[in-house]
Structure formats: C-alpha cells, structure tokens
Amino acid sequence: MLRTDTLLADAQTRALELEAQVRAAVVGQDRAIRLTLLAVFARGHVLIEGDVGVGKTTLLRAFARGIGGAFERIEGTIDLMPSDLLYHAFVAEDGKPRVEPGPLIKCGEALSVFFFNEINRARPQVQSLLLRAMAERSAGAFNREYRFPHLLVFADRNRVEKEETFELSSAARDRFMLEIPMETPGDQSVRTRLVFDPSFHDPERLIARVREAVVPYAELNGIAHSVQSAVRAAEALQRYALDLWEATRHPARYGVAIEGADMRRLVLAGASPRGTSMLLRVARVAAWLDGRDYLTPEDLQGVFREAIAHRVFFTPVYEMRRGELIGPLVQQILGRVAAP
Predict the structure, then answer these.
(1) Does pTM top 0.90 for this prediction?
(2) CB 310 within 8 A of CB 47
(3) I need a surface site. Which of 12, 116, 285, 299 has the fewest CB within 10 A?
(4) Which fold would CATH assign to domain 231-336?
(5) Domain regions of the chain by residue span
(6) Taking phi first (over 0 means left), then psi (-120 to 50 degrees means alpha), and beta for anything else, what does residue 137 get?
(7) Class in CATH terms, 2-219
(8) Distance between CA atoms of 73 and 115, rounded to whole angstroms?
(9) What sign does the CA torsion over 86, 169, 50, 68 have?
(10) Average pLDDT estimate for 159-168
(11) Helix (H) or strand (E) holding 235
(12) Does the CA dihedral 183-69-73-205 come out positive or negative?
C-alpha cells in the first residue's frame, strides 16, 4: 500500500508539472487546460467547443508533446469517407498506385492523441467508425486488427457554419467523457499578449516550450487505474452522485424550475449510466490532484457541467434553445440537490 501511495504521489507531481508546462505554451485557458488534464488521467475522450483561432490545436499538441506518443489529426469534410481514416491511395512517382496507412492506424500502439477537427462536417458513417475506435481502441484494416491502447480522441465542432454539417447523435455525444469550452480570453492583458507578443504567433515554438514526455503516455493507463482504486467515495457521497444523476432525468422532482420552460416536457433523456460513471472518474482525478484519497461534493460539482451537460437531451420543442437552457438547468440541479 505504501508503494502505491508513493507512486501516486510521484505521478501527481509530474501531472501538475505537465499542467504547468502546457500553461507556458497556452495562455488564458487555465480552465480548459485543467479539464484536459483531468481527461488525460481519467482516460476519457473529449469534445472541445470553441471558436476558430482560440488555440485548440496548440493545446492538444502541447499535451501530446507532454505525454509523448504520436499526435495525428484529420479534418472533417462533407466528402470524407470512413476509409480515409484507415488508408489513403495515391499514384507514386513511378506511376504505380500505392496504398498507405491512414492517420488512425499508421502509428499503431504509439498513437496517444487523435484530433478530429470539425467532426460535425463528417458524415455519420465516418463518425461511426471513430466511435468504434473510441469505444474499443481498435480498428480493422489490411486484413488485420490495429489496437490503440493509449488512444485519446479529441474532437471539435464547427459551430458557425450550419450548412453541410451532421450533428452528433446522442450515442456519439455520450462517448465523450467531457465537453470542454474554449472561449476567447476576456482578460485584457492576456489579449494584448496574444495579439502583440510575437512569441505567440509561432505555434511550433510555443509547443517546443513543453518538455517532452513529462508523464510518458505508456504509464497513463496504470496511473489512471491506481487513482480510481485509491480515491474512495463515502456512502453519503454515493447517494449525492445518484441524486444528481436522477435530477438530470426528472428535474421537477427536485424543485428545478426554469423560467419559460415546462419542466414536465423539457427533458427527453437525462444522463446515462456511462455518463454518471465518467463523472465519478473525472471527480476522482480532481481529488487526487488536490492531494486527497476521498471525494467531496465539490469534486463532483466542479466538473458536473462538462461531464453531464452534453448528455442531457431536450424534447424537440426545446432542443433549439439548448444554448439558452442547459446552463440554468445545470445550475438549478447543483443548487437544488442537497449535498452531504
């Protein structure tokens, strides 16, 4: 037991060092960096919500450098086919056709971060292949099975253009552990640095600030397992987590009320068992990073929106108002469900 404690303490030190390294390359996004760190050590895939040019790719490349392994990306387009993730065919210089592995499989087990940019521009068939890779960390191609035991998938959605886009299904959204917002920094000094400091105009140099393999990717699965085993949840905390889950399904039972919404018709489906389990996984990592081996209500509350909001589905009459309603719903649930 002592050896486990020592290993987790060392891993915690390195995890916080990784966070500090990434913050040196990506400024004004401390919340997004911490949430991404939680996902990395909870071993969960992530949806990123943000406008163009806020640093999503830089953030992910910085984390990929900090954990080592391979970083791959693909751009979502209307004509993208599932096979484009697995291989690409081309005519070589000698005039002969050639087929080479695509971005999902070419690095094999060394793939640690895969970034799907503008996933909602890709057709459902492409999204389905990605979902299998996320769920099973494997894919079939060239008459063999490729495995990616260390894979984390990050995806963002184009939220500006709506033409030729395919919104993610409920099953697809539920596969992502967290949905992390990345907004333009509001702090004036940070904005000034981003615009006028030339060092922030060269992503390659920014990423080079991150020390390589601060926490080697091959160790992450073992660390994550140890964290989940070491951080305990008291019986009262377990009841609280179950009440939060139930409130996403039947908010009116807990006195949740949102002006302009019929609470009996608002929610079509609440969080899934998988979603609630992922909430607990992330919360345990948060507790571990704070140096505790037990969960508190604040651990759950701190990641509740990012772990649960994208898993709550409104009835069609309210779904178009999701952006307006989901924030108040989450706040009301956290305010109405009694914490131990």
Answers:
(1) yes
(2) yes
(3) 12
(4) Helicase, Ruva Protein; domain 3 (1.10.8)
(5) 2-219, 231-336
(6) left
(7) alpha beta
(8) 4
(9) negative
(10) 68
(11) helix 235-249
(12) positive
Long-range contact pairs involving 48-51 (C-beta distance under 8 Å, separation at least 24) = 48/154, 48/155, 48/156, 48/179, 48/180, 48/181, 48/182, 49/156, 49/157, 49/159, 49/179, 49/180, 49/181, 49/182, 50/156, 50/181, 50/182, 50/183, 51/159, 51/160, 51/183, 51/184
Long-range contacts of 94-97 (CB under 8 A, 24+ apart): none
- Residue 14 has a CB neighbour count (10 Å cut-off) of 16
Q: What is the identity of the amino acid at 39?
A: A
Average pLDDT over residues 228-255: 96
In terms of Cα–Cα distance, which of 32, 26, 28, 66 is closest to 49? 32
Residue at token pair 């951080």: 231
Neighbours of 166 (CB within 10 A): 17
- Would you give the DSSP letter of residue 198? G
Q: What is the pLDDT of residues 8-44, one digit of tens each?
A: 999 999 999 999 999 999 989 999 999 999 999 999 9
| Whether residue 3 has pLDDT greater than 80 | no
Q: Which two tokens stand for residue 307?
A: 């772990």
Helices (H) and strands (E) in the chain, counts: 15, 11
Does residue 271 contact residue 248 with C-beta atoms inside 8 Å?
yes
One-character DSSP codes across 112-149: EEEEEETGGGS-HHHHHHHHHHHHHSEEEETTEEEE-T
Tens of pLDDT, residues 281-300: 999 999 999 999 999 999 99
Decide if 280 contacts 233 (C-beta within 8 A).
yes
Residues in the chain, overall count: 340
Instruction: Give the DSSP letter string of 285-328.
Output: HHHHHTT-SB--HHHHHHHHHHHHGGG-EE-HHHHTTHHHHHHH
| Cβ-proximal residues to 134 (8 Å cutoff; 6+ apart), any chain | 45, 151, 153, 175
